[in-house]
Write a structure and sequence with these properties.
This protein is about 70% helix and about 0% strand. It is globular and about 45 Å long. The protein is mainly alpha-helical. The chain has helices at about 5-25, 45-65, 70-80, 85-95, 100-115, 120-130, 135-150, 150-160. The longest helix has 22 residues, at about 5-25. The relative contact order is 0.12. The protein has one domain: Serine Threonine Protein Phosphatase 5, Tetratricopeptide repeat. Helix 1 crosses helix 8 and helix 3 (about 70-80) runs parallel beside helix 5 (about 100-115).
């Protein structure tokens, strides 16, 4: 075995680790979900404060189930409270009504990934991303889905593009 090939093996795993650490450092606590959604975040608000917000979102969604913005907000809130399967269902219905809405596709893809449907998440996220309007958050989420599928080398390409 040559010296170069023995060094290439550890380096092959170092790059993805550095990319994950670098992207993890970009996480914010703002309103926008900027980190994908494959990790679990702790929320500063207590459950008592979150419940009235969920009730209000649920009522808004029931009143206007066809509104993509309401569906996206409700789906995100469901994901954040651990109701992953329900988030997938809400966002799936919204995407059926608005199949070209990139924000809905991105939210639906993240919800699928949260729920463990990694191949479907990757496919949906691919529909949410366009080369004309690249979004590092979607590329990062696609990379994470590929990692979960064991397609690590392909995932590295998505992480590199996200950077």
């Amino acid at each position: 075995m040559s010296k170069r090939s023995s060094l290439a093996s550890p380096a092959r795993f170092l790059l993805p680790a550095l990319l994950v650490l670098g992207l993890g450092g970009c996480q914010t606590n703002g309103i926008e979900d900027v980190t994908g959604a494959l990790g679990v975040r702790s929320e500063p608000a207590g459950k008592a404060e979150a419940k009235p917000d969920m009730d209000a979102l649920r009522e808004r969604y029931r009143a206007r189930p066809g509104d993509p913005g309401v569906a996206l907000a409700y789906g995100k809130a469901l994901r954040e409270t651990g109701q992953r399967a329900q988030a997938v269902a809400v966002l799936e219905q919204a995407v059926l009504g608005h199949p070209s809405n990139k924000a809905l596709l991105a939210g639906y893809g993240r919800a699928l990934a949260d729920n463990g449907n990694f191949q479907q998440a990757f496919d949906v996220l691919g529909r949410a991303h366009t080369p004309e309007h690249p979004d590092w958050r979607i590329l990062s989420a696609q990379g994470a889905a590929l990692d979960q599928l064991g397609r690590n080398e392909e995932a590295q390409q998505y992480y590199a593009s996200a950077l």
